[in-house]
Structures are given as structure tokens and as C-alpha cells.
Known about the structure:
About 35% of the residues lie in helices and about 25% in strands. It is α/β, with parallel strands linked by helices. Strands 3, 4, 5, 6, 7, 8, 9, 12 and 13 form a nine-stranded mixed beta sheet that branches. Strands 17, 18, 21, 22, 23, 24, 25 and 26 form an eight-stranded mixed beta sheet that branches. The longest helix is centred in the first third of the chain and has 18 residues. The chain has 21 helices and 28 strands.
Amino acid sequence: MIIETEDGHYKSVRTPAEERSLIEYTIRDMDPRSRECVMMLIEKGFEGDTEAADEAASDLWDIAPVPIEDWLEDPNLVGDIHKAIFPQHKLDIIEFFNGNYHEYILTGGTGVGKTFTATVCIMRILYEMLCLKSPQQVLGLAPGSPIYLAPISKTKELARRVAFGQIAAKLNLSPFFRGRFIETKEEIRFPDKGIYIIGGASSDAGILGMDVVSGLVDEGNFMGSGKMATRSDTESYDKAETIYNGLVNRIQSRLARHGLNGFVFLVSSKRGADDFTERRIRAVREDSMIDPKSETEWEAKIRALGVFVRDYSTWGIVPDKYVDQKWWTLAYNPETGRTRIVEKGSELHRGERGIDFPNDFLADFKRDPIGSLRDKAGVSVEVANPFITNRSYIDDMMDATLPRVFDVDEWNTEEDLEILWDNFMVKNLRGDPTPACCPNAMRHIALDMSVTGDATGFAIGHDAGATEIVRRDARTGKETTELAPIVHIDAVLRIVPPAAGEIEHEKIRDLIYRFQGGGMAVKSVSMDQWSRAPNEQLLRKHGLKVIKLSVDAKLDPYLTMRASLYERRIKSPFHKHLRKEMRRLEMSSNGRKVDHPRSGSKDLSDV
Length: 607
């Protein structure tokens, strides 16, 4: 399967060879003669319209379901939905059901009908199950067993809006469904078939214990993360990924042994490049490109071929609506975060990417270019809500000509660490070693300690004087001049745990003492509360003041850092990992915390 990309959007396309591989894998357990017959019938266009096929179908169906193409256009079956659904979504739904897919990833901009489309698919699944004489028998369940379809959202209230606001509303518009179900505050129930639609929250693990044949993860990219306690700290997990894995495992464990897949729908608008839908699409692309040589690899490839991906901008789902408008281009530089709006067809600068948009959205892009790139154009940005919006300041902060203090940027505490004294220390008039930069300044060490999970961040810095800064009052427009400190970072070090061990805090303390003994006037150390208790007493014995500082508890340290960065009052040696972390810092949705993307870190930026 090819997942095509164009202007930041994805589209899955199966090749004819993959279609054949999918069929051959499905019938691999048949005897050779039967496989040959099946392939011959398929190649000749056999559609099952024979008396034998009709007789076999009568054992399964109360009512023979109409093809998906006819179903979408029949007001007796879908009500007025056939008028409301976008034509492109109709084509996609037809391809999804006719293509024997089991997973539908629908993403992109806002207002493109993602949840609407997914709930129409849920209706089709319900329709086919209601047409069966016994859905339980076909699904391999015990007679009378309840069958569940589960829309899951960030909260139970949001899930109910999908279940009752979207699904139930559609069912009530259809003469086929009307009167066949009972709607309560907790569920939609089809008593004659034992089928239930029940909404769940992303934190509701109980729903994963039910016999779910179809799940809808709605706006999964906005479910956020949860915390899991570990031996040394807490680790975060992606709620959408956890729910998805639980649904897939539950559906597969119940249905796979009967040759069935069930259905999972992943529906979400775009946020950042590390969000779950983005990671899931990348994983599908990788699996679909496997050249299988084992049963496990075959299974991975076949499952990838069963994933249907569609990704639209707000205007891309209805292109005819905007064909006569003037078009513009948002030119944006992923490296710096800078944007500009130009007329479509204008030449882009080096490093820029261009996204075209119609005139109806010009005001949105002028007001919030990055937000509109994400929400309207449906293009994932590096981080959803970047804390440092203009990343060129990060490059301005780092000076590659500043001397290296360590022989490595990353240190494993089981290895030796060399301090390059000659690079940054000189002799004073008495012949004593002293720092070449600001020799009279007191040094401060900041630590973001860890044991086994995250890395430990280590930085040495000092006050290098002050500079005049002109600040403008946002309310009155009045300008004032203030003196603000200049901060020089002497060294940055990322400390990682051994392959099968823990970071030894004793060795980090010894590193601090080495700087003290080598002529640097280290007077204070800051760290957060959890690591302060076992280290504070020992550090105080060496004359160090220990300061409690938690960047997770308060936003102020990060706001101060950003202001200093924007006013060019910080200078640091170049450190690749620090640069990456700072570029990917993002503000939480409630604006109370600075965090990192799921696959990122902020061990160095925290110090």
C-alpha cells in the first residue's frame, strides 16, 4: 500500500499487486484446488449471483443487505443523510467497505466532517448486523451475548454527544432504524439483536472488557496523556494510543479466530507531528512496505493493507466551492517558525514550504498563521502549541565558537568524563586557575535529576552583568527602560543511565566537587523537590547552597527564560540536544505548563 503525501496530507492507495496479495493471504489455508478456483472466479469478475450463493446467504440473512453504493443513496435506509454527506466522503465510504478494510484513519482540518463520516460508517455496520439472523453466531459469540459498538472520547460527556447527538440522531432519520432501538442516558439498545452502542471516556478501562466489534476513537489527538507510577518516577502514556491498543486487542481476540476483523475508526483534527494519528500513519506506512519472509511479517503487512487513510483540508473536501476565489500561499519555515502570506505562485525563499488556501480563509491566516496551518489547512506542525514561536532566537543563543567544557555532550555515569580545563580556564596573577569568562562571577549549577527513565540535565551558568532593555506596556503603549541580567551558560551536559543500571547521583555530586576544586566559584545548586532530599545534606557539607526549583510546579521559570531569550540576554555553547528540546517545547492546552511532545524530552531545557 502506498500512503501518498501532498501538501502535508495523507491518502492510502492499494496497488493491484497488493490487492492480489491480500486475497491470496486470506485464502492461504485452502487446499490448492480450492484456491485456484477462488482466484479464477475473482479474475473473471464473479460476483456471487448464483442460486447456490443465494441459498447459502439465506442461512445468514433475514434481509439481504443492499450494496453500500445503493445504501448511501436510499432515504428509507439513511434518511436525509444522503443529502448532507460530502460527495468525496461518499466515495471514500464506498471504497472503505468494498475494499475489505478494517481500520479507518480520518484526519485533517476542522469542519471536514470527520466524525460525521465515521458515524455514517457505524450506521452501515449496524445495518448489516441487523440484517443478520444472528449476529452473535456470525461473530462467534454465545447466543444472547451482548454486542457493543463503542464511541470513545476524551470525556464521557463528549462520547455521549457522539453516541446520542450524532449516531442516535441519524438513526431517527432513517425509516429502517426508527422504532427498532431504545435510547437511554447510558446506551442505545437494539433488543431484538442484542446490540448496544455505549459511549466511553478515554479513562474508562471497563469498556475494553466488553465484546466490542467496532470502536470509534474521537479526537484522539486531544485526549492528552496519563501518568503511570514507576520505581523511580512517573512515566506518561498517550491515552489515545492506550485506548486504540485496547480496542484492537479486544476485537482481535474475539473475532480473529473466526476470520473477522471488526472495525476501528480513528478520527481527529491535526495537532503536532508526534500525535497519535501521525504516529499510527507512519507505522502503517512502514509495515505496508515490508517484504514479508515470515508469518509474523505477513500478518503485519496484511493488517497494514487493511488500513484506510484519508486526510483533508477544510477547503479540500469541497474544492468546487472555492474554485473561483483568489488563492494565497502561506510560506512558512519549519526551522525558524517564521511565516508570511504571499499571492499563490509567488517564489518561496530558501527553506520555506508553501500551503495554498482560498481567499475565504485569508483573515484566519493573517490572525493566526500557525494555528490556521494546523486547524484549517490540516497540516501537522512540529509541535501543536509551540512555547517558543520564533525558533531563530534559539540559534542566536547558541554560539558554536564558545569553548567546550566536556569531551562529550552526553555522559553515561559508568564511563569516564573528561573536563577540558585548558579550553575555559586561565591562570590569574597569583597563578591560581580561574575561568576565562567573567572570572569574578559566582557559578550556579542547575540539575534536573533522574534515575532510570529520563536523562539528567546538568548546566553551569553565571551572571555576566546587565544590559538596558526597552519594554512597552501592552495596555498603555508606554515605553520604559530597565536593567536586566545577562546570563552566560558555561557548559551543558546530558547524563544518561547505563544500559542496565541507574544514574549514580554520587558521580553527579563528584562532578560538582571537581569544578569547585578546579577553580570555579560554584556557590549554589538548584533541583526539584524529589531529588533534593537525598542530595541536599551532602552538597551543603561542601559549602553549597541548595535551592528548590520545580519548573513543573510553576510556569514562571520558563516565562523568564523565554523573555531572556527574546531579549538576547542568554549565551550558551552549542548543544544539539538542547537545541532540539527548546525547539519542541509546547504550552499545555490549559496554558499552565510547558511540556514536551510524547517522543521528546526537556531534561536540558528544564535546567
